[in-house]
Design a protein that fits this description.
Helix content is about 70%, strand content about 0%. It contains nine helices and no strands.
């Protein structure tokens, strides 16, 4: 019978949380290239070995922390209407992209991907895959309710929902006015061919 791990062998959630926060702050302040395991450990108040017990490398640690942060912010909602679901989903996307730390981290991760082709492939899949699955489930519910056409081009629809927000907030670095989400939802409903949209 296997012995239950104790002491240092147990990954304590509060330590993992402290490390996670330290990674986000270090990414925001130093960027991907200058972030070091030593600095993360110091900021978190832990030994470097505490990091290596959780992640095998700096790249894996960053990918894991950014993925967990990002996937947790995908709005998995079911308001009973496409309009309501779109509003919640788009607002959650705005909140994710404008998060005080993440909004400073994302441009650096995009730049790192440009500097090192292939770097972002895994990260895009780990973040984009689950987030798109949530969006697809929302659209499939709307199809089942008769709000969207059955032959909806799912890939294009998912792009249409996220791209304007990313373009506005990240590329143009423009603000989302108070009525932006409502205007975007109305536009998306028309673009998707929603019944009554």
């Amino acid at each position: 019978m296997a012995r239950t791990p104790t002491g240092a062998a147990v990954l304590q959630p509060e330590v993992t949380q402290a490390i996670t926060e330290a990674v986000m702050w270090e990414l925001a302040e130093q960027g991907y290239g200058r972030l070091s395991m030593e600095a993360v450990a110091k900021r978190a108040g832990v030994s470097k070995s505490a990091l290596y017990r959780r992640w095998t490398s700096k790249a894996y640690m960053i990918a894991s922390v950014v993925t967990d942060f990002s996937v947790a912010r995908a709005a998995d909602v079911n308001t009973g209407s496409l309009r309501g679901d779109l509003r919640e989903t788009m607002q959650a996307l705005i909140d994710w992209l404008t998060h005080p730390l993440f909004s400073r981290i994302l441009p650096d991760l995009v730049a790192e991907d440009a500097r090192n082709p292939g770097y972002g492939d895994g990260l895009r899949g780990a973040i984009g895959g689950p987030r798109r699955e949530v969006g697809e489930a929302m659209l499939r519910r709307a199809i089942a309710r008769g709000e969207l056409p059955e032959d909806l081009d799912m890939e294009l629809a998912l792009d249409v929902l996220a791209a304007p927000i990313y373009w506005r907030l990240v590329v143009r670095q423009a603000e989302a006015e108070p009525d932006y989400v409502d205007r975007l939802v109305a536009y998306a409903l028309r673009a998707l061919g929603a019944q009554g949209g």
